[in-house]
Write a structure and sequence with these properties.
Blueprint (H helix, E strand, L loop, with lengths): L13 E5 L5 E3 L2 H7 L3 E7 L5 E5 L1 H14 L5 H12 L2 E6 L4 E3 L2 H7 L5 E6 L4 E5 H17 L1 H9 L5 H12 L3
Length: 178
């Protein structure tokens, strides 16, 4: 990497947080470092509907490029759904100097969190906001996938995979429902 190239911020982490009545979440350090405090970001509904996504403007732009490029050969109805209901259903959100992320009202309604208890999970080029209930209910399935693929994951973390594409394809076949 040359000095001219900016270092892209990545976010990986986990935190249980509480949303106040005004729709604000105090971001733990790793998440506030990603968005900046103060800072602006984009918020959108993750396609499964289980959580919300928060991305910096740069990461949102890269997401749009990837998704639009990847949908070029998709059926027109899927392309339209992705544009309108995923990318198009985005909005700006802000983080103040006290590291409070303000979630716009329509996204608070999507979360449907009656107690304000949320989970943040860093996904690299953004983070997800879950209700604690949704996160923990869906966690069992993710843990089972990790357990089934522990040898692959160990080799991956140790840099032992010579043919990553082939290994990933095999593992995708194992975890993709028939």
């Amino acid at each position: 990497m040359t000095q001219d190239q900016p270092i892209r911020k990545k976010v990986f982490g986990f935190a249980e947080v509480t949303m106040d009545k005004a729709g604000r979440i105090v971001l733990p350090g790793v998440f506030a470092n990603y968005t900046g405090a103060p800072g602006n970001a984009r918020i959108l509904r993750e396609p499964s509907g289980l959580c919300l996504e928060v991305r910096t403007e740069d990461d949102f732009s890269r997401l749009v490029e990837r998704v639009v490029s990847g949908c070029q050969k998709a059926p027109s109805s899927l392309y339209e759904a992705v544009l309108l209901e995923y990318l198009g259903f985005s909005d700006y959100c802000s983080v103040d100097v006290e590291r409070r992320l303000l979630i716009p009202e329509r996204y608070r309604k999507l979360l449907n969190s009656t107690d304000g208890k949320l989970v943040l999970t860093g996904i690299g080029d953004g983070f997800w906001i879950w209700t604690q209930k949704s996160y923990y209910e869906s966690r069992e399935a993710r843990l089972a996938i990790l357990q089934e693929n522990r040898a692959f994951i160990f080799d991956l973390t140790q840099g032992r995979l010579l043919n990553m594409d082939e290994q990933c394809a095999k593992n995708t076949e194992k975890v993709t429902p028939a």
